[in-house]
């Protein structure tokens, strides 16, 4: 028995390395990205590490005081643009619902592009503020951090880590160049769809053309919007021979916020650790009133609907159509909605300001989740095996939902022509066709069947980088090669030249021999 | 306390899924490959699975009876050619030592090629024997296996799994096409060295040319030696539209016998699980006589030497040189050697028939390991942090050792000009230059710092495939695409054509407009 306990303890010691009280410097990204980062920050704190988070003075997500981390507030604007994004979403809905012109949509997209341009400019201002503030940089250096943890959706953390000579860990799905894998893993465009193209890993010829077009466009956008900001900074602080893209590709570790029940299988790299679903937890009991409401649904069960924080309100007509569809159902509905009460709302529908979404999704009476397609909600639905009716609005939402559609776990609607009838049919389709639930429960069982929880894996990996001051043995340095070497173009041209020269030599030799023979023949004649 | 125990138990239950008494059908590869496979077979048995191993009647490695597995003996020759390989190695040594002609070496390599040709022919005979034996195939089908586990160094298991419609797991480093990664993971030849080229991940231009040449040669060898055998069988049993290479690429899981402390960082795939070092264990106490010998070394410590099972003997002159070098050392030496006692043997050297290699490598008094570069010994040395003097002879040994040399943990010698002086200098170099030991201990600490032991990870993955009847969500189906689609050649040509046609159209338009203007001008003139 003693031996068994000793074994268990040594085994636990092996898999759960003691928190060694390291120091983590976090350069986060704004908006919903912070929601993900905070999960890691809080867990790092619980494991005994000291975490310092850098925030802009006007940050509307990252609070200045927390029991889990200390902050360094940079007195520059860069806290994101919540108002603009709310405006953007409601404009998109307006254009889509009124079948607005392609031109109106294009103009809006250009506005978005400018906003991203501005956002990266602000991030760069934050970086310049830090780099120019000698006191601050000295304090960073003296604090002897073990690692910089950052979201590569902006480039600030990359620059900071290089300045301080610290190992770099990414909490990533999007980078300043697009989807994160595309920056380091070989990504054949023939079977790796580029988000947000809504394509799958099995594409027709025309879909592959579309994928290539998306890729080209994305590269162009990077070069136009993002590249110049960061290149200017690397030039200014690290010299002209240091490129921003190389610094970024040299990160020690990529904690990728995807799981292969969601992501299509594709090439990856040894320093990518998959932690999709790291924020998911078993459900806790519901508050009593909610539990009573859920129980009152009887055998029909409950539908929950949430469109995320950006889409708190909907146009009246749309809210009315949705409420009217719900009223037709025998199920009970819990709808997270902040707008005014729709006139068509049925008795079966409960409007709430906020809901314990994870606990509801884990409740056995929940039959269906109506979602905008944000990744947090999607992973919670996968974790609990609840099928989805998707209503994507902006950004990666349609692409996220298209992946679930491809796996047979979601019915995805278009906001443009959404009405009571279409909405009701979609809900009934998912409720009545068992394959949605069966497929989703299969994804849940695959997702949960891992030897280690995604969050534990992520934390282990961060601590690994801290213990070993990086993870050089997992990271290729192929990004240092010029493209013609990387793709072996120089080698192929060389071999071609050798082959051609050899051929020419032999042809010459044969010609020479023939001429010799011919001359001799002439002579002997 | 009760809560803690409950937590530990539930945690253990989570990471160690209960053995569910599955059934595993194993089609192994001969020779030292079986040594690796047996580790998995025995562990599967210990976890409550029933394991059936297929063996040829003349198999000299796989015994017919075992307490860990049952066997199906196929009455066909196919058990490998131990005698030939012994002959081959001693011929290689002879040629190298006598500075034999390149022609002699080439002739020997051709003999080896023929032997591999014959080996694969024998494997195919085993497969045909099974497929034609209706009783046997019926018994396989009725046994309801959960998975086929095979070493893809031969293609038998692949064919059997497809015939029986079972999930397929590889225990792989080499396949019938060469190094295993090259069959499924993108492998840019610019930074992924092809074993056994002895190149690293940082190559000069000429080295990259060499790598490309090796790759071309390897593909040619596959097409010439191996491909035809297996293609004939897929044609015969599965129809002409099923290619062997596709069946092989469709494996659910690749348990790769490498670790990134040994392998250079390179692209990989989601269904590759790294289990390099899975056979390593902490050292057990030594037998008393050996422990006394080791302790008698005092502060100088002990050197151990083993050249594996294939190289039990050496030419007299070479053995004398080695023994004479050992005699000069203040260290004690344990030398696994089966030949006659060298005349120059010193009192400090103990000749043994066999040694508990892992237990010796884990002993704190061991200072150096002299090895031929087989992977088992290499991983044991890495695990215990013991630096290496390498003497490669054949196969992948030189390449394995070149990886260790690149990481600064081995001094590698050439058998051709090995003499007492060179050997002594190499030993003294590794003993006196601390970087060898420091680097090796760094590799050991990186290798051991994993959240899960490699063997546990491998077993979890096999059981995962058994539980879910495959791992389709981790496996791309890109191998089904024709090469021109895979590499987007068709898309690029299409886009080029569109660009050209657009350009032509615009040029035509401009030309037409110009002509129109010109005509009007003429008229108005």
TrEMBL record, chains A, B:
<feature type="signal peptide">
    <location>
        <begin position="1"/>
        <end position="21"/>
    </location>
</feature>
<feature type="transmembrane region" description="Helical">
    <location>
        <begin position="491"/>
        <end position="514"/>
    </location>
</feature>
<dbReference type="InterPro" id="IPR035595">
    <property type="entry name" value="UDP_glycos_trans_CS"/>
</dbReference>
<dbReference type="GO" id="GO:0016020">
    <property type="term" value="C:membrane"/>
</dbReference>
<dbReference type="Pfam" id="PF00201">
    <property type="entry name" value="UDPGT"/>
</dbReference>
<comment type="similarity">
    <text>Belongs to the UDP-glycosyltransferase family.</text>
</comment>
<keyword id="KW-0732">Signal</keyword>
<keyword id="KW-0812">Transmembrane</keyword>
<keyword id="KW-1133">Transmembrane helix</keyword>
<keyword id="KW-0328">Glycosyltransferase</keyword>
<dbReference type="GO" id="GO:0015020">
    <property type="term" value="F:glucuronosyltransferase activity"/>
</dbReference>
<keyword id="KW-0472">Membrane</keyword>
<keyword id="KW-0808">Transferase</keyword>
<dbReference type="InterPro" id="IPR050271">
    <property type="entry name" value="UDP-glycosyltransferase"/>
</dbReference>
<dbReference type="InterPro" id="IPR002213">
    <property type="entry name" value="UDP_glucos_trans"/>
</dbReference>
<protein>
    <recommendedName>
        <fullName>UDP-glucuronosyltransferase</fullName>
        <ecNumber>2.4.1.17</ecNumber>
    </recommendedName>
</protein>
